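Q: What structure does this chain adopt?
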Amino acid sequence: MTSSVATRRLPSLDRFGWLMALYAENHVRLRRLFNTSDLAPGTHISSVGDGLDLRVEVLLQHRYTTELRVSYTMVDPVTGMPDPSAYLRHYHDANQLEATHCYIGRRWQDVLGMYPLPAALISHRLRMNTFLGKWLEYLAERGHGRGTLRLESESSAEILTGA
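A:
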């Protein structure tokens, strides 16, 4: 008796679905580090003693969304801006974290043009958000998190007082 195994076709994850899943994974990674909805507007510094202090700038804080820039405290000698740097949009209600751009002064329009093909735009966002996921994992491995994050003014005061 020959038995045939019916092969069930699993649904494939299209590139847009993959991107949305990546946004959800990055949300989880960021929440492990810190809760952006609890951060006060302004610049926060995380120092773990490795010489690569992390700068988290809360640019806009809304009820359901936080926009921020994450970078090291290093400055690019040509532009004078923090580098590397990622601009993020955190959708609290949707549990999504999106890297909107990762270039100093450059948005996707500057990289891809005003009317890119949808596939090119999705590919660009996949690369940026894959980079973001790896960077967030690296930051967690180095020890950055809720306990190391201080408002920049608090960090300066601690240095001055020796606290």
